[in-house]
Amino acid sequence: MRTTILDLQKMKQAGRRIAMLTAYDVTSAQIADRAQIPVLLVGDSLGMVVLGHETTLPVTIDDMVRHASAVVRGSQEALIVADLPFLSYANEADAVRAAGRLMQEAGVQAVKLEGAGGNLPVVRRLVELGVPVMGHLGYTPQSTHQIGIRVQAKGAPAARALIDDALALQEAGCFAVVLELVPATLAAAVTERLTIPTIGIGAGVGCDGQVQVWHDVLGLWGEKSPRHAKRFAEVGQVIEAALKAYAAGVSDASFPTDANSSAMPPEALAEALGVAPAARPKEPAA
Ligand code: KIV
Does ligand 1 come within 6 angstroms of the Cβ of 8? Predict the structure, then answer.
């Protein structure tokens, strides 16, 4: 049974922490499901870690639908949330169209959007139409050219504004809020004041859950992960070693072996080549 937004609410109430992880394709979704990760985010971080862009901004709704549907096909258990891409929710009509594609074509169960303020009517409309919405405050990557990649809301006015934004998103109907690159004490204070779960990334242990990027936790991305991430394995090194072994196996002809190959009757090959079959070795006399 898939995790639902009601399950997340119960987890917060019971003090059970929520692990959320990004996924972008069918294989990662299958593995995450086997690891019982309850929430998968098809993040627009796709733009950087999968498509090689510098920011999330070039990611289109078509990109999101394609990758989100692969994740949906790979996962039976997780709640799947997909990011609404940059400028796809600038007004209610656009947001409804984009969320509709993600829910109807890709089959995700919820969408995420960044910021509060002017987006609150969009959140209200989506929720009214039955679309579960996750908010995202603090460092919001779609505004990277305005705010830079840095910890947000360190001063009192910005911290107050962030608390107000989180309360406004909850009031507008969000079922959870991501807090990215926010001081740990502020994130804990927001978490205490909200009845919906907070999911932190670079926001300390006081949130109701954590979200990490697939490539960061697996050590697939760069030599060093950002401070807010932890490399739980060095899968990139494992893959590199495997690929070197594969290339060496090809080069010294130790791969493929008979076990990796198929046989055919020698007569059939001889006939296909138009030559006489090679003489069979004589059977030893009984
Ligand atoms: O796109 C993404 O991966 C995200 C997470 C970092 C929260 O929005």
Answer: no
- Atom of ligand 1 at shortest range from CA of 46: 1
Task: Report the share of the chain in percent with pLDDT over 70.
Answer: 97
Query: Cα(104) to centroid of ligand 1, in Å?
Result: 22
β-partners of residue 134 are: 112, 176
- Which domains are present in the chain? 5-233 (3.20.20.60), 240-273 (no CATH)
Give the model confidence (pLDDT) of 78-90 as tens digits. 999 999 999 999 9
pTM of the model: 0.94
pLDDT tens digits, 172-212? 999 999 999 999 999 999 999 999 999 999 999 999 999 99
* Mean pLDDT within 35-62: 98
DSSP string spanning the chain? ----HHHHHHHHHHT--EEEEE--SHHHHHHHHHTT-SEEEE-TTHHHHTT--SSSTT--HHHHHHHHHHHHHH-SSSEEEEEPPTTTTSSHHHHHHHHHIIIIII--SEEE---SGGGHHHHHHHHHTT--EEEEEES-GGGHHHH-SS----SHHHHHHHHHHHHHHHHHT-SEEEEES--HHHHHHHHHH-SSPEEEESS-TTSSEEEE-HHHHTT-SSSS--TT---S--HHHHHHHHHHHHHHHHHTT-SS-GGGS----HHHHHHHHTSPPPPPPPPPP-
Distance 32 CA to ligand 1 centre (A): 16
Positions marked active-site? 180
